[in-house]
Every structure is written in C-alpha cells, then in structure tokens.
Amino acid sequence: MLTPPLLPEKSPLFGLCVCYPSPGIIERIGPDWDWIWIDGQHGEIGPSDILALVRACDLIRRPALVRVPGHDHGAIGRALDTGAAGVIVPCVDTAEQARALVFAAKFPPLGGRSYGSRRCIDLYGRLYAERANAESLLVVQIETPLAISNVDAIAAVPGVNALFLGPDDIMLRRGFAMNTPRTAAALGDDCRAVSAACKQHRKKSIAIGASGEMAALAADFGFDLIVGGADVSFLAAGSMTAAAELRRNHPPP
Fold first, then answer.
1. What is the pLDDT at residue 231?
2. Does the reported pTM lie above 0.90?
3. 3 state DSSP class of 147
4. Is 248 exposed, middle or buried (CB count within 10 Å of its CB: 0-12, 13-18, 19+)?
5. What CA–CA distances, in Å, run from 179 to 146, 183, 233, 251?
6. Which residues neighbour 93 within 8 Å (Cβ) at sequence distance 6 or greater?
7. pLDDT confidence of residue 211
8. Which domain range does residue 32 map to?
9. Which parts of the chain sit beneath pLDDT 50?
10. N or C: which end of the chain has fewer CB within 10 A?
11. How many domains does the chain have?
12. pLDDT digits over 157-194, tens only?
C-alpha cells in the first residue's frame, strides 16, 4: 500500500510557494525544498489544477499544503480529497472560526468531513480516514490585528495543527504601504505572538522568509516552517539577471 508524503520531524523546514498551474515547476525545482505550498487563493491556480499539482508533489515525495480561497467547507474537503498533506485557510480571526474549520477538515469524531475521496481510497485504501486526522494538517492563517489578539485561543483549538503568519495582510491592516520592508520593527511583535502561542499549545508555526531579514526573523522566533520563496520570484529574478548580463556583455553599437 502506498503512503502519502508527510512533513519530516525536523525544524526548520523550508518551503516553496507555487503560484502558477504548472506541475513541471514542481518537478523541476520542488526537490530543492522540504514542502510545497500550492496557492489556490491568490495564485493563478484553479480547483481543476490542484490535483495535478498534488500529483507532482507526490512524484517528488514532498508534502503539499493547499491554500484554499476561503472558509467554504466544500472547497476544504475537495482540496483534502486530492490527497494533499493539508490545507491552509486564510484570514482566521477567532477561535469560533477555527472550530468551524476543524469541522470541515477533520473526520468524525473530531470534525464532520465527508468520507469518500476517490484518490485517497485508490492510493491508500478505505482505511485512510483512520490516519487522516493525524496526518492531514489544518493550517490557519493569522492575518489581522484581531487574529493576533485572539492568537492564543485560536492555537488552543483541538484539530488546528499550525498557525501561519500572513505578513502582507497584517501590515496592510496596520496602515503600512506594501513596499514597506518586512522588518523586526514592523512585524516582530506579531511574530512573537504567533510563535509563543504555537509553542504553548504544541502547534506548528509557519512564516514567510523570502527575504534575508524575514528569514532571520522567522528563524530567531523559532518558526517550524519557513517559506523560502515562490516560483514567480525565482522566475523573475533569473530572467532579470540573464537579460542584464546579456545587455552588459553585448551592448548595442
């Protein structure tokens, strides 16, 4: 019987964010990373693309965490039915919302997820549900000042497995422009609050570390999973570097 790829028991784990619906990207650069974040909220990835991307993650034996667009129970169940290692749910502000998401993402008796994933049964057998509550992660994103004020209560909810600090929305809601550097002065208190709540309740903590300063900040606060970058940024950086080098070495007459 096949087994799904799961997060290794070490820390920190460095992840790749995938924004484009291209399994080839995962096959090519996914093995460089410990886990893959499939962005079905803000990326160009639709529901029909997620299964192919999860299959690519399975091929390279990297766990896939699928960010769904919102709190819709059907979308959460559908993402988990692809065999993903877990779901990331945006904008979770209260413990009440977190409990509703547990109901959507976990099988009874912990939750109310509907049984019957065709792919999970085909690959892992009809007893996959007996392991799913422990093996499938429910990740809630902490993205507002209200969520920060409720972070301890959210982390305490049984069935919530990880908290993911969303720096862009936090800073937007605190009045920062989106080109403001992500520094300890701007985000240190939020990082501290999420990290401390996760440690207190033995949940995994996730942060963005796509810049040197953010990566250092996440590491300093002991985050377990750190997003190291995205396909879009690697593509853009590689293209700009190559184009600039060509123009420097071969200037127009």
1. 98
2. yes
3. helix
4. exposed
5. 23, 12, 15, 32
6. 144, 146, 147, 150
7. 84
8. 13-249
9. none
10. C
11. 1
12. 999 999 999 999 999 999 999 999 888 889 999 999 99
The Cβ-side half-sphere exposure at 28, using a 13 Å CA radius, reads 8
Q: Tell me if 148 is assigned to some domain.
A: yes
CB-count exposure of residue 140 (10 Å: 0-12, 13-18, 19+): buried
pLDDT on residue 111: 98
What is the rounded CA–CA span in Å between residue 77 and residue 104? 7
User: Please, where are the H alpha helices in 33-117?
Assistant: 47-59, 73-81, 95-105
Query: Residue 96 is part of a domain; what is its CATH number?
Result: 3.20.20.60
**Cα 60-118-32 angle, rounded to 5 deg:** 10
Instruction: Please check whether residue 5 lies inside any domain of the structure.
Output: no
Question: Residue 197: which residues within 8 A CB-CB, separation 6 or more?
Answer: 151, 152, 154, 155, 163, 203
Q: Catalytic annotation on 42?
A: yes
Residue 213 CA to residue 18 CA, distance in Å, equals 22
Is position 106 within any domain? yes
Distance in angstroms (rounded) separating the CA atoms of residues 204 and 223: 8
Q: Which two tokens stand for residue 133?
A: 């509550």
Token representation of residue 91:
């904008």
Task: Mention every residue, 6+ apart, whose C-beta is less than 8 A from residue 25.
Answer: 18, 231
- Rounded Cα distance, 203 and 183, in Å: 24
